[in-house]
Specification:
The protein has two domains: 219 residues, Isochorismatase-like (Rossmann fold, 3-Layer(aba) Sandwich); 229 residues, Rossmann fold (3-Layer(aba) Sandwich), CATH 3.40.50.880. Strand 9, helix 10 and strand 10 form a beta-alpha-beta unit. A nine-stranded mixed beta sheet has the order 10-9-11-12-17-16-15-13-14, with helices on both faces. Strands 5-4-3-6-7-8 form a six-stranded parallel beta sheet. A two-stranded antiparallel sheet has the order 1-2. It is built from 14 helices and 17 strands. It is elongated, with a radius of gyration of 29 Å. Helix 11 runs parallel beside helix 12.
Length: 544
């Protein structure tokens, strides 16, 4: 009996010990920073695709470095965005600090106000690290991986996005405050709280030593400006990445110095997106603030994107696959906000079409022989009557000419091609020959032709489209042996609506960079946006 009780006691003690260890392990895991990091790598076709990976970081092995969140800036809008960004950033660092993350404030050239504080002394007193990189005191303008790509924005003008008049007025204001208009910063923005547990430094050497002293290998960078200081400072992303730290950018806790009047002529916030994408490709992954705080990622109030309704309902050319990809990879990179709706061409339905059109700044069509509910076509007619832009591809020349195959009561628009697109669809040649695409006579200098490598071969049959309406301007021609050349892309003015149409759009065309550029340029033209010239692309390492 005693032996039995003793055996039971041992098993019970063993269970208690195991349960205690397991509970401790689970509690420890629950305290970790659980992050979802986004990065980009090439797929089998050579295209960069976004991927995600989970990070499980111990707080005491993690630091947040806050880069150059100054009290003032030489750019008025840059200064205003810092003020808008700071409260959310302060919530992030407060939460992370309580979890045990080291917070390092790094307002460059602003150490004087903090010289006698415990935070500044903490950074200065860290012993020299055994693995101190030789160049950690220096700016880093590129790392070898970046040489695989083209730097995404032109920041050679310093990136201020004010008008000259706004800039001059802001400079006078800074002078009235006794500040140097070119470098007005004196401290970190006071909307960010410093705690005695934190550190303050603008030195790559000091920060590296501090990280080494604490055995910290995980670093989260936030602050401004992503394309300059956040990337290039001695404590920035490039130095951390190339010297072996597990570094990520918190992509919604940052901003860029980018002027939309410069290449590639996208909005300021789309410029930030392009820099983030560049970082995810060549430097390090990125995370977002709601992964620490919950809720939604931060977004600047002025970051309002133009809405694009991409409407697809055709059974032949796989645009239900190619156009969503184009929207995600191209339209979003242009700073647009696409919504893709895919209909059921057999049932002649495209759910949500009218509602999407009513909200859209641009409509993109890939539709074939549909007789849709009257409200959907009425919404499109109203949209065009208001002078709003349209882009249409391939079978959209006969988008609403169902030839009686639609359901009873379905609305049609048989003359949509000549009335709106400015075309004259008369069928197509066979698929035995694929057309060679060249610029139309006199069109070589048109902005839509800019950057399109010519000639190229389309992946689909040649449409018969001649003659175009007098209001249309042919930009590209397709030619097969033994047949006259046919227009394959043109612009048209339908009332006040800017219309771009191309009879290209076969699935194989979307694999051709020339066609993707052509279609992208057509979108920009329709929205009256400047079309970039690839020759204007900056050279990495020569920008500020």
């Amino acid at each position: 009996m005693r032996r039995l009780e003793s055996s039971r006691l041992k098993r019970l003690l063993s269970f208690v010990v195991t349960a205690t260890l397991l509970a401790g392990s689970l509690a420890s895991a629950a305290e970790n920073l659980s992050l979802t990091a986004r990065y980009r790598e090439k797929d089998a076709s050579g295209k960069y695709v976004a991927k995600e990976k989970k990070l499980d970081w111990r707080p005491e092995k993690t630091a947040i470095v806050i880069c150059d969140m100054w009290d003032l800036h030489h750019g008025k809008r840059a200064a205003e965005r810092v003020v808008e960004l700071a409260p959310r950033m302060n919530e992030v660092i407060a939460k992370a600090r309580e979890q045990g993350v080291l917070i390092i404030h790094a307002p460059s050239s602003c150490m004087a106000p903090y010289e006698n504080t415990p935070m500044r002394k903490r950074a200065k007193s860290a012993p020299t690290a055994a693995d101190l990189p030789a160049d950690i005191a220096n700016w880093c303008r590129k790392i070898p991986a970046e040489e695989q790509g083209v730097y995404p924005i032109d920041q050679s003008d310093g990136g201020e996005d004010e008008t000259k008049e706004e800039d001059a007025a802001w400079a006078k204001h800074l002078e009235s405050l006794g500040r140097n208009p070119k470098a007005p910063w004196k401290s970190q923005c006071d909307l960010l709280t410093m705690d005695e547990r934190d550190a303050v430094s603008d030195s790559g050497v000091e920060i590296w030593n501090l990280l080494a002293q604490r055995g910290i290998d995980n670093v989260i960078l936030m602050g401004v400006h992503t394309n300059m200081c956040v990337l290039g400072r001695p404590f920035g992303l490039r130095q951390m990445a190339k010297n072996g730290k597990n570094v990520v950018l918190m992509r919604d806790m940052t901003d860029t110095m980018y002027n939309p009047a410069r290449w590639p002529y996208v909005s300021h916030f789309a410029g930030t997106d392009l820099i983030v994408e560049h970082i995810e490709r060549f430097v390090c992954p990125t995370v977002t603030s709601e992964q620490v705080l919950g809720g939604k990622p931060f977004r600047f109030k002025a970051d309002v994107r133009q809405k694009v309704a991409v409407l697809v309902s055709e059974p032949e050319y796989q645009t239900d696959e190619t156009l969503p990809h184009f929207a995600a990879e191209t339209l979003m990179r242009m700073g647009l906000a696409p919504t893709v709706l895919v209909g059921d061409p057999k049932q002649h339905t495209l759910t949500g079409m009218a509602e999407a059109i009513e909200k859209a700044d641009l409509v993109v069509l890939s539709i074939r022989r549909q007789a849709l509910p009257e409200k959907d076509l009425a919404a499109l007619r109203k949209y065009l009557a208001a002078g709003k832009p349209l882009v249409a591809i391939r079978t959209s020349s006969h988008a609403f000419d169902a030839r009686g195959s639609g359901p009873a009561g379905g609305a049609e628009w048989p003359k949509f091609d000549p009335e709106i697109l400015g075309g004259n669809y008369q069928g197509h040649h066979g698929t035995e020959q694929l057309p060679a695409i060249t610029a139309a006579e006199g069109a070589a200098d048109h902005p839509i032709v800019r950057g399109v490598a010519l000639p190229f071969q389309s992946g689909g049959s040649l449409y018969k489209t001649s003659p175009l309406a007098s209001s249309a301007t042919a930009l590209f021609m397709g030619k097969i042996e033994g047949q006259p050349a046919e227009p394959v892309a043109w612009t048209n003015m339908a009332g006040k609506s800017r219309v771009f149409y191309t009879s290209l759009g076969h699935a194989a065309d979307f694999e051709n960079p020339s066609f993707v550029t052509l279609l992208s340029n057509g979108v920009r033209w329709a929205l009256d946006l400047r079309i970039p010239d690839p020759k204007e692309a900056p050279v990495l390492g020569k920008t500020p």
